[in-house]
Design a protein that fits this description.
Helices cover about 80% and strands about 0% of the residues. The protein contains eleven helices and no strands. It has helices at about 5-40, 45-55, 60-70, 75-80, 90-115, 120-125, 130-145, 145-160, 165-170, 180-190, 195-225. The N and C termini lie far apart (about 50 Å).
Length: about 230
């Protein structure tokens, strides 16, 4: 069954949200992973628990916490309101929801990439007089690039499928906040929506396959360059 304009809007909005959430999260994910791998401090375990907490919490719980924080009576909502930014039940709220849910996957992949770096390279960089930020940008960042690509791909795919947190904090407004999963939910709730739901499911599967294939191709290319 051909897609209707509302479905195309949902697909484009899902892509927009996933791209934005991933792009915003990468710098924070890289910084968090670097702190977790190369810095030693008291309370590090607390940071690790907080970073990985979205993996164990139900997405609906995450969405509700975001709603409380960014809502009318929340601290974040008050700050945004003071600068004239509408947040709750907008696509921006869906971006934050997707970023929150997918952030642990991003950090974990980047962290694995950093942990695989030969520490002798870091020691050599320091022995040559490089500052910590020189070492960060000339050694750690390039050698972590594969992890960044892997984490970004996983987070992008996770953002495309985000449902629970998004529907709580952004709602399910056709044309404004309705993403692919939310549109499928609407069709699944309708007695006549089976065909349209299957069409969007097919689109979702196709996008996920393309992303995973691209992820594998880029990973292999980076691995080949590293070994050569």
């Amino acid at each position: 069954m051909p897609l209707i304009p509302e479905d195309i809007t949902a697909i484009l909005l899902s892509m927009k949200i996933a791209v934005t959430a991933t792009a915003i999260s990468v710098p924070f994910g890289f910084t968090t992973a670097w702190i977790m791998v190369f810095r030693h401090f008291r309370g590090k375990v607390v940071l690790e628990v907080l970073v990985n907490l979205p993996l164990t919490l139900p997405p609906v719980v995450i969405g509700y916490f975001l709603l409380l924080f960014f809502g009318r009576n929340g601290w974040g909502g008050a700050v945004l309101k003071s600068v004239g930014i509408d947040f709750i039940f907008t696509w921006k709220a869906a971006v934050v929801a997707s970023a929150t849910v997918g952030f642990p996957l991003l950090v974990r992949s980047i962290r694995l990439g950093m942990e695989s770096i030969d520490r002798q390279l870091l020691q050599a960089s320091r022995s040559l007089g490089a500052t910590w930020y020189d070492t960060l940008f000339t050694v750690v960042l390039p050698l972590s690039f594969r992890g960044i690509i892997a984490g970004s791909s996983l987070m992008f795919a996770r953002s495309l499928g985000e449902f629970g947190a998004t529907i709580i904090v952004a709602g399910n407004i056709p044309g404004l906040t309705q993403t692919i999963p939310l549109a499928i939910y609407d069709y699944a709730s309708s007695p006549t929506g089976k065909a349209m739901a299957l069409s969007l499911c097919g689109v979702s599967v196709a996008l996920s396959v393309v992303i995973l294939l691209l992820h594998e191709v880029l990973s292999k290319q980076l691995e080949t360059k590293r070994d050569s």
